[in-house]
Amino acid sequence: MRTSEESPFANIDWITVGIYVVLVIMGWLNIYAAVYDEQHQSIFDISQKYGKQMIWILTAFILAFIILVIEADFYTVFAYAFYIFFLVLNLAVPFLGKEIKGSKSWFRIGDVGIQPAEFMKFATNLALAKFLSNQNLSVISTKRYKTLSDYIEMYKNTIVTFIIIGVPMIIILVLQNETGLALTFTAFIITLYREGLSVNYIILGFMAVLLFILSLLIPQYYFYIAFGIFFALWFYFGKHSFKIFFTKLAYVAAASVFVFSSNYLYSKLQPHQRGRIDVLLGRGEINLKKEGYNVHQSKIAIGSGGLFGKGYLKGTQTKYNFVPEQDTDFIFCTVGEEWGFVGSTLVLVLFAFLIIRIILLAERQRSEFSRIYGYGVASILFFHLVINIGMTIGVLPVIGIPLPFFSYGGSSLWEFTILLFIFLKLDAHRLYILR
Amino acid sequence: MNRYQKIQLSERKYYIIGFIVLVVLLYIIRLFYLQIITDEYKVYAQINAFEFLTEYPPRGYIYDRNGKLLVMNEPSYDLMVVPKEAKGCDTMALCDILQITKEEFIKRMTKLSLPPNSPRKQGIFEKQLSVKTYAALQEKMYRLKGFYVQVRSIRKYPKPIAAHALGYVGEVSKEKAEKDPYYKEGDYIGISGIEYSYEKYLRGKKGTRIIIKDVHNREVGRFMDGKYDTLAIPGKPLYSSIDAELQEYGEYLMQNKKGSIVAIEPSTGEILCLVSSPTYDPNMLVGGKERNKNFARLYADTINVPLFNRATQAMYPPGSTFKLIDALIGQKDGVLFPNTRYPCARGYPPMGGKPKCHPHPSPPDLEMSIQYSCNSYYSYVFKSIVENYKLWGNFENAYQHWREAVMSFGIGKKLNYDIPFEKPGNVPTIQYYNKVFGKNRWFASTVISLGIGQAELTAVPIQLANVMCIIANRGFYYTPHIIKGIGHEKYLDSTFKVKHYTYVTEREYYERVVNAMEKVVEAGTATLAKIKDIKICGKTGTAQNPHGKDHALFFAFAPKDDPKIAISVIVENSGYGGVWAAPIASLMIEKYLKRKITRPDLEKRMVEANLIKANIDYIKSGMPDKKKNITYKKRKRKQ
Ligand SMILES: [Zn+2]
């Protein structure tokens, strides 16, 4: 057994660090390409976004260094403290912060903007890991449950888990009006699945999404007819007991209510959100100059890249600002246009490699806290990857979340750096954990 | 949780990793589709970022046969606007300069903002500004955001002549622009005359400058530093066979008269002049607003029909001129000899003196028949040709033979010269007469007036000038052409170098006709055409005109033994050919061969005559003997 006198960088997984550095540098190069124009070429020109991003990157490296220097136990001990601190910060932001484009999630300090919602992710991940370590999601027992309090007892842990995830989510969604950021918290479903959440929840979730999409594409009465026929067949070929009859009826009724309410929910969405869903599903007349513009332009930029791309700094679509948000949420367009199929595939593979590596690292942890935290990191990265790239290639609706390490913005880069390096520190510390 | 459950749960990592791999694979497939398989987005990308700007080449100049400039270019200024960028410009100043109302301004801007135009695209706000307007605009330009002036070149004619031959340039029609990918709406194209038939040489080749634009439609640079730009290639100059001096003189002589003068050089087929009167100043049909106004005015003039090119499109019965062709075919067919004499009783005896004739010594021989233009004689000749059963078996065959022989002289068919919209004239077909009279129910006597160039027989002036070339050349012609060289290398299409032989090629047959034609001028029906030292061979004619006074025709070539010019002159509503048409032809020949006029009195009389006015008075007075002619024609058809 080694002693704690050893260097704080011993046992660090340098492969992960390497991928991290590569992704950050690639990100910066693409921001430079997206913002690039002939007049401003100095990479440290802080009037330009790539100059600012350079500063964010350097500070992120310093942050990573600090995280690695601090004792691993610090994160375990203060997990809840982090959670409470950022929760309060997020609650305060709508009242103290500055409103930017309808979103109330920014603190501005001089020229620099900080979005506390970003940091809520690693804080929530810490709290979740703390809560779930050495606990079961549901208490499995042979005892037959009779009373409500019995059921509460049985699902207590599940309920607390959902509260830990749900409270920041609702604050960010309702108070800060940041749909995309709020949605990232659903990524924890992967962690929960690993930690024993019943597959039924996941199937239920998939079914709900599927029904929601179908209910927007197909007239409602088809559903009711289909449910009716399904129910009749199900009942006819199943066991004929009175209780089962009502159970099945309840299922079908719930599905019907869901279909009905999903249409209602859709109609209550903000127009631009409805537009984004319409664009994706190809519903109605899509105006390529309005709601369809982003995705169309994004597809043009990526599609025009071809096999090897147009070459670095030679992309016409991104360079001349045809793609909106091309340095933040739509940064992947620059990759697609200038580096082509080869480059964009490489980025995807690098991300996949990083995420899978984190999962494998998580699996080798002795401490459950570290494992759960690791899964959280992988889940959040994966969720961002899927949503962000899915949106740029037109398979998912436009949800404004950044591509980790790539997108311009200090808060998100810091957040992902903190998220990842806490895990790396925990991983480096794994050998000190006694079984 | 027991150990077994823990192991079971840890197996879930495989599902999670599997799911991640699956999603990433699906995304790679999607990228493969977007970037490799479909081209759709590459096309969009081009439209997005590049704009292909058209560079207009200067149109080719046109020179006359002596190198004098006939057509040149002059810059014209179009006021362009990008509606989206014009927000907040000084509207009032602009309206003031262009003298338009604010409502008109809004109307135009709205039009330019709606499809197929776009608020981001440049559109023409006002075409071809006057120099004054342009100067006034230049001063205010800095206050007119979104507006700019585009320079294009328009035609300019140093001398206001040859409007019909040169034709004019105008905006390409919508249909043409859709059919021909070279043209875009708003482009210029030759619409008539040389401008039309030589469009593809004159226009040159448009160039393209590819510029890169950002999302705000601002130019940010040139694509690949202009590597893929194409330079505009200027249009080729054309060298016309027109003699500007002769053309101008012809138009001068024909003022206040309707008709045409076509002169051709027999040894080449080069058109020396192509006068159609009344004419107009070709400079009227350039320029924006003015052009449209002028065109409407010229188009609406139904009395003078100045836009009508009589030289190539007016079809007249060739009248007595046609007797020359009869004489040639008759000799070739062996039914007419120098000493053949037919009686004339102030008309054609077998049909009771119809067609009528005028007093002259009778019976004439071949030479005299031409000299005195005897109608009776050529009724006999025509009959002998189409009733030559020995040679052709029956009447229909003989008639068909006659028709083909006539058409070999370039009448009743297109000559395919290089002036557009040519009219073929007409030599009636067997089918036509079968339809009118019934099969086997018409004979030589039924259509006897064909023999003297009347009835349904028609020809256009340029064809008749071409007939003169044939006689001057003794048996062949070159397709007439108005352009003798394309480009600096003066290329001439080989079709204009081919000798077209007629049915009659024997020199002796021609010599008899030529000698008689000389007599026509010396002591026949066209003595007014006589010039000292130049042997002119000519033939008068009269084309019947049911709508007014008859048309005077005169055809000639000169000099007799070394023909340099063949000419057809038609003066409408002037009556007898020898009085008006022959002197004009004679003056033209003198001008061309001598470059000076020795008979100023004759010239003065010709120039000062206003036959248009005279004819209007004549029609008002009730056209005394015209009605008889019409009833005669009708009765004949009923036979
Ligand atoms: Zn006679």
Highlighted features:
heterodimer, A: 435 residues, mainly alpha, 2 domains, three-stranded antiparallel sheet, 3% strand, B: 639 residues, alpha+beta, Penicillin-binding protein 2a (Domain 2), Beta-lactamase, six-stranded mixed sheet, five-stranded antiparallel sheet, 18 strands, 16% strand, disordered C terminus, binds zinc ion
Word description of this protein:
The complex is a heterodimer of chains A (435) and B (639). Chain A folds into two domains: 14-196 and 292-432, no CATH class; 198-268. In chain A, strands 1-2-3 form a three-stranded antiparallel β-sheet. Chain A starts with 13 loop residues before the first helix and ends in a 7-residue tail after the last helix. Chain A has helices spanning 14-35, 49-69, 73-77, 79-96, 116-132, 148-175, 179-183, 189-194, 199-217, 220-237, 242-268, 271-281, 293-303, 316-319, 331-363, 368-392, 410-428, and strands at residues 98-100, 103-109, 112-114. Chain A is mostly helical and 435 residues long. Chain A is globular and about 75 Å long. In chain A, strand 1 and strand 2 (103-109) form a beta hairpin. Chain B is α+β, with helices and mostly antiparallel strands and 639 residues long. Chain B folds into three domains: 3-38; 51-240, Penicillin-binding protein 2a (Domain 2) (Alpha-Beta Complex), CATH 3.90.1310; 245-298 and 308-638, Beta-lactamase. Chain B contains 25 helices and 18 strands. In chain B, the strands form five sheets. In chain B, strands 2, 3, 4, 5, 10 and 14 form a six-stranded mixed β-sheet that branches. In chain B, strands 12-11-18-17-16 form a five-stranded antiparallel β-sheet, sandwiched between helices. A three-stranded antiparallel β-sheet of chain B has the order 1-8-9. In chain B, strand 17 and strand 18 (565-571) form a beta hairpin. In chain B, helix 4 runs antiparallel to helix 6, helix 11 (244-253) runs antiparallel to helix 22 and helix 14 (322-333) packs across helix 16. The radius of gyration of chain B is 34 Å and the shape is elongated. Residues 625-639 of chain B have low confidence and may be disordered. Classes of the chains: A mainly alpha (435), B alpha+beta (639). The interface between A and B is large, with 42 and 35 residues. Bound molecules: zinc ion (ZN).
